[in-house]
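Much of our argument rests on the idea that a fold can be written as discrete symbols. In the encoding step, the backbone of a single protein was reduced to a row of integers, each denoting a local shape. This step matters because it turns folding into a mapping between discrete strings. For completeness, the protein is quoted in full, as a sequence line and a line of structure tokens:
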Amino acid sequence: MQAYEVVKKEKPDMITLDLEMPEEWGTKFYRKLRKEKEFKELPVIIISGMASRHLAVKDAVAYLSKPFDVDKLIGIVRKTLG
């Protein structure tokens, strides 16, 4: 719930999302975001150690497995945001 409130307040250009969050699954958080008109097109990068993570969020910008390569993440962010 805190993450959702932060996104609504800060209005980020992009989100990195772990599918295993302390109080809520990342997929549930993602679906909640996508219901909001202002966040429908917000780019999301999934970072997860879960198998089949690509099935959870079909329109993510990218999927990175934990542990992930920081340079790869930076490259994806630059490519996506310009």
